[in-house]
Amino acid sequence: MNPRIRLQYQTRYEYSDAVGFSPHLLRIFPRSEPGRFLRHFELQTNAEADVQFRRDFFDNNIARVFYPERNAELLIELTAELELREENAFHFLLDPQAAEYPFVYATQDRERLAPFLLPSAGGDKSPVLPFWSPPTASAPTVEVLMSLVSALNQHVKYESRAEGPSRPPQETVECGSGSCRDTARLLMAVLRDRGFAVRLVSGYLWEPPDKEQDRRRADGFFHAWTEVALPGAGWVGLDGTNGVFCDHHFIACAVGLDAEDITPISGRYFSDTPVTSKMEASLRIEAL
Q: What is the pTM of this model?
């Protein structure tokens, strides 16, 4: 039987005085895709908000929210129920020309994937990895990718960091640690430098209770990983934080070229006088 789950995500911002808000963009809704069926969802936020549901240029489900009144609190809460279809992360067959690394995309594919082959908007360059290097001779593509995500899992220590932008790849290597979004950005830079088309992903990671100890993730927050375009397989998820190919436990909310494209909640507050603020976030996922 396909597992069904309920997820409850909440972010609450509190301010020392009432503030105004810019329009906020929410990328917290599971994407509609085979194997992840969104059966029901409810979004709650400040009572006076004007919520407009849309799809962005990457076909992500988003909400653009306008807050006309000043407030000392901003609440964003999502409850969603999904049905997941169990899948084997390696259940795909590559086209013959992509079975061995290195390979070259067909001309038509390369034209369509061009934005995902270029360095990110931040100009990320692939740093030298002291713990991994690509094979010097032809090797199975899947084995090369698996060796890379395994090396990142083993050598980049996981760091829980809920706020702030992702670090540049070179900084992550120098620190020897990073959040999931840092590792995803590093993996993207390494793969793009080696000719792969790659995009970033943010979403939820769910494991049954008896498997949770096997994952390294920040409880209460979103997870980030990458997807690589492989001829014959399409977009294939790679999680450098956990050192695995992604299966049905990875529930994508947003995909994009750069970190800014997948930020779960983006927006600003403003005030005529200095205010202090704090944020609390929680995520609960349970089987139904």
A: 0.93
